[in-house]
Amino acid sequence: LESKRSLRSFENALNSLENGGGSYEAAYTNTMERIKCQMPDQRETALKALMWTAFCRRPLKALELQHALATEPDATEFDSGNITPIDDIVSACAGLLTVSQGTSVVTLVHYTTQEFLERAATRWFSDAHADILRTCITYMSY
Predict the structure, then answer these.
(1) Do the domain assignments include residue 1?
(2) For residue 99, what are the β-bridge partners?
(3) In terms of DSSP H, where are the helices of 7-85?
(4) Does residue 27 sit within a domain?
(5) 131, CA 20 to 30 Å: which among 43, 52, 74, 103?
């Protein structure tokens, strides 16, 4: 999967893995381990972006995701200097995240990615819904 450079080739590879008796589970686990080995800022960006994309109630636009990731828990005002470029966010996610060119909607690359992240939530996202709630409350209080 790491060698795939287009969305279509990545999706085709994932579809072929589905018939491999759990092979895609190993591929996703491997990708998440690679994310875990990134520099701390990249790792945190990737894990938060994947958490928001997998567990948010609706698809987010790129700017919404950027603002969610830039929101600091104890801040009293929003600091636009914390906004990470969307290309950096996507890159940190090691091929698991994509942004629609036409609508700027951020999605996981394949439905199996969603399934994997939901199954592995306790390992990678200790309290996703609470983290999302805290961020939303903080953002609304600015």
Answers:
(1) no
(2) 106
(3) 7-18, 23-36, 40-55, 62-70
(4) yes
(5) 103
Long-range contacts for 86-94 (Cβ within 8 Å, ≥24 apart)? 86/62, 88/45, 89/45, 89/46, 89/49, 89/65, 92/35, 92/38, 92/42, 92/43, 92/45, 92/46, 92/49, 93/35, 93/46, 93/49, 93/50, 94/2, 94/31, 94/34, 94/35, 94/46
Which residues, in sequence order, are bridge partners of residue 108? 97
What distance in Å separates the CA atoms of residue 138 and residue 142, rounded to the nearest whole number?
7
* Model confidence, pTM: 0.84
Which token pair is 111? 């439905």
Quickly count: other Cβ atoms within 10 Å of residue 9's Cβ. 12
Torsion angle in degrees (nearest 10) through CA of 85, 132, 129, 49: 0
Helix 23-36 vs helix 7-18: angle between axes, to the nearest 10 degrees?
Answer: 130
Give the number of domains in the chain.
1
The verdict on residue 71 lying in a domain is yes
For residue range 31-83, list pLDDT tens digits in order: 999 999 999 999 999 999 999 999 999 999 999 999 999 999 888 899 999 99
Among 2, 6, 132, which residue's Cα sits nearest to residue 73?
A: 132
